[in-house]
Structure formats: structure tokens, C-alpha cells
Design the sequence.
């Protein structure tokens, strides 16, 4: 029996069978042939959202760009193409996605269906770039859903609950360069000047180190047309992004696991290792960072106005707990959108993501953070760890019951369900 595991290693499953369809027609045939089917992309979610309870469809063969209009910027792709491959194919066409997160192994369908996002006070998650999608429903219908379709706002972040997304049309923009400015700052200074930092940059984010006042800031801004790229030198990339941020950091995390009492001092050192740097490069080269140290993650979207108080509450918890947290906290921002199950639905957000090394049990830490975040109307990222159920989501998503009604209509027998969907959407 084959066992499937997600990237983080915290979710495993033993599907009845594994299929690798290469087309929508093959997906339809498999959906009709089996009572329980679940599609998976890269397995980069930390939740069991893609864990199969029957036949698993791996969409790795559905990885083609089907059509690209460089004038309108509309690009049609198969749902299994990775963001990593798509970014490079778009760049060759003179196009780009308007916003990205900080890693790119996810499939397009996986990233959009779980509400994956980047940062930018006037920008949105990746699903906002979806102009149309193709959905295979439980009875084998192939629905073409665009902005004029009554399912559009439900299907763009569909959680894998409505059917299997097989093709996606993305509204891209002309390729652009970003100027990156990265520098350490005291966390207290970042919080004191937070609105100016967020509103004064196209993309702003920061990391802060628990048990310290140290933060690392990232400001990414578009440059004027005609600006020449000035990418990081190979040696600086190798030193900062590969050696320090991955090779050395893996050893740091192993030491933290063995000697947790050292973590405050280790975090102080970690927050000081990376110095200030500036460079200008293609947008996807600036957005994306290599992440090879395995971890577990929980991330919540809160109303942007709650950022300072939530961080203060986290700092108070770090100060009084006997637990030491070795991984930095990531903080990002996005604008409100109109997608029913998007964490950004009708609300400007701050996203606060907490992490633990994969060899450390995150349960108590994540539970404490979840209590802080839900007190501020937090909405967890659908692909990141939490323990909340339908009762909470009904309170924080105005269109929750409308989404469930669409699911009831499209999948009344729950062909696409699993334990996670029963948890978050109800039976």
C-alpha cells in the first residue's frame, strides 16, 4: 500500500489508488468511476485539506500552459502546473502574476483553492487573479466558471469541496522589476511605524524573533520603466539565502531542539546574522525565497487594525511562558477582496504566521496563538494548522452558509470530502 505525505510530514494517508490524469477528460472518467476522489497538487498545505479517503488524483501531469494572450494578459493553464514553472513561463512571455507568496512549489489549483497570498496593502491573494476556471463536479459535469457565472465567487477559493479544478485562466500583468530593501530593525520600531511602512511600500513584510526585540524587514517596490536589473551577486545569494538561511539554520534548529534553554540567545544571534541589502530583479525572483528547513505553520488573518495589539499579546505570552520558540514569526498585509471563502473577504488584513521546527511538537504553542488570533476575529489560512470548526467559520465568514449551499448542490453525496472538510464545513 502506498502512503502519501505532505511536504511538512505532519499529514499522511493511504489512498486506495493513485492516478495521474493528464487531461480534463481523464479526470471526468476517474470521478465517475470512483465513489470518493481527492485531487492533490504539491502537498504543500500543513492541514489535511488534500488528504484522500479513496482514490487520489495527482495532477503533476496536468502542467501545461494552454493559451496566452500577451495583449490582454489572460493566460490559461492546467491546474497542476506549479507556481515555480508558471512564473518562468510567464516571464518568457513578458508577463507576471501581480502578487506572490514567498515560496513557489504549490500547484496553481492548490494555491488558489486554499487562499494562498503574498503581501501588499493595495494587493490581494493569488485567487484574485483568477479570471475563470474549469471545474469537474461530482456527476462528471465540466463547468466553465467566469466572472459572469453565479459560482465565480464561491469557486475561486473552493477548498477542494466543490469539485476538481482542472484548468485556470489567470489575469496577469506585464512583467515588472522589484527593488528589494531588506534590513534589520527593532520590533518596537516596526510596530510604532507600522502604518507608514505598510502604506508606504508596494509590498511590506517583516519577521520577528520570539523572546527578543529583533525583526527583519522586507520592502519591495516597483521600479520605473527602463530601470536595469541589479540582482544579488551569486556569492551574496549563496551566503545569505542558501548557507545562512538554510544550511546553517537547519543546524540552529537542531541545536534548539536539543537545548531549548538556549533559544532566546540563539534567536538574538539569528536576528543579527543577516545584514541590510538592496537589489533589483524580476518580481518572482524577489518574492520567492528558498525554504528547505522543514517546519509546521499556523497562520491567521486578522483585521489590519488589530496588528499591534495582537503582536503585543504574543510578546506577553513569550515573556510569561516556559516554552521557548525558535522560529521567527512572519507578518504580512493584504487588501480586502470579494471571494466568499478568502481570508481577505471584505476585510483588509494583517496575516500573522507562527512556525515550529518539524522535530518540535507545535500543539501547545499553536493553541495559545490561536486563542490570541480568534479573539481578534481571526480567520486561519485554509492550508495552515488550526483546530477550528464550522461554528467558528460561520461567525467570521458572512457567506459561509451560501458556500455550504453550493457544496450541497454540487456534491450532495460528498464524493470530494475528507476529515478536514467535515471539520471546517460540517457534515
Sequence:
Amino acid at each position: 500500500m502506498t502512503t502519501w505525505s505532505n511536504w511538512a510530514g505532519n499529514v499522511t494517508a493511504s489512498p486506495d489508488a493513485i492516478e495521474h490524469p493528464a487531461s480534463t477528460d481523464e479526470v471526468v472518467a476517474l470521478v465517475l468511476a470512483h465513489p470518493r476522489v481527492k485531487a492533490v497538487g504539491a502537498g504543500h498545505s500543513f492541514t489535511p485539506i488534500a488528504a484522500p479517503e479513496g482514490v487520489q488524483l495527482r495532477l503533476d501531469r496536468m502542467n501545461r500552459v494552454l493559451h496566452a494572450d500577451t495583449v490582454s494578459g489572460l493566460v490559461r493553464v492546467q491546474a497542476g502546473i506549479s507556481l515555480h514553472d508558471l512564473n518562468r513561463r510567464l516571464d518568457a512571455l513578458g508577463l507576471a502574476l501581480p502578487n506572490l507568496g514567498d515560496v513557489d512549489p504549490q500547484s496553481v489549483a492548490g494555491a488558489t483553492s486554499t487562499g494562498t497570498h503574498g503581501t501588499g496593502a493595495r494587493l490581494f491573494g493569488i485567487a484574485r487573479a483568477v479570471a475563470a476556471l474549469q471545474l469537474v463536479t461530482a456527476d462528471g459535469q465540466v463547468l466553465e466558471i467566469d466572472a459572469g457565472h453565479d459560482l465565480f465567487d464561491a469557486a475561486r477559493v473552493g477548498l477542494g469541496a466543490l469539485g476538481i479544478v482542472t484548468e485556470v485562466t489567470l489575469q496577469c500583468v506585464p512583467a515588472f522589476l522589484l527593488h528589494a530593501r531588506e534590513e534589520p530593525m527593532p520590533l518596537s520600531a516596526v510596530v510604532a511605524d507600522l502604518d507608514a511602512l505598510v502604506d508606504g511600500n508596494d509590498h511590506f513584510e517583516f519577521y520577528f524573533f520570539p523572546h527578543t526585540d529583533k525583526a527583519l524587514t522586507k520592502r519591495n517596490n516597483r521600479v520605473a520603466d527602463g530601470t536595469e536589473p541589479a540582482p544579488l551577486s551569486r556569492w551574496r545569494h549563496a551566503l545569505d539565502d542558501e548557507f545562512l538561511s538554510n544550511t546553517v539554520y537547519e543546524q540552529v534548529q537542531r541545536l534548539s531542539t536539543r537545548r531549548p534553554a538556549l533559544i532566546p540567545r540563539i534567536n538574538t544571534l539569528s536576528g543579527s546574522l543577516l545584514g541590510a541589502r538592496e537589489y533589483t530583479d524580476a518580481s518572482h525572483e524577489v518574492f520567492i525565497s528558498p525554504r528547505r528547513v522543514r517546519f509546521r505553520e499556523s497562520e491567521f488573518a486578522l483585521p489590519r487594525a488589530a496588528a499591534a495589539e495582537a503582536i503585543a499579546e504574543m510578546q506577553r505570552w513569550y515573556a510569561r511562558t516556559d516554552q521557548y520558540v525558535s522560529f521567527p514569526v512572519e507578518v504580512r498585509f493584504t487588501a480586502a477582496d470579494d471571494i466568499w471563502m478568502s481570508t481577505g473577504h471584505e476585510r483588509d488584513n494583517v496575516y500573522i504566521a507562527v512556525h515550529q521546527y518539524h522535530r518540535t511538537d507545535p500543539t501547545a504553542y499553536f493553541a495559545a496563538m490561536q486563542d490570541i488570533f480568534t479573539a481578534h476575529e481571526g480567520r486561519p489560512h485554509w492550508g495552515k494548522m488550526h483546530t477550528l470548526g464550522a461554528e467558528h467559520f460561520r461567525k467570521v465568514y458572512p457567506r459561509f452558509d451560501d458556500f455550504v449551499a453550493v457544496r450541497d448542490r454540487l456534491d450532495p453525496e460528498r464524493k470530494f470530502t475528507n476529515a478536514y472538510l467535515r471539520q471546517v464545513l460540517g457534515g
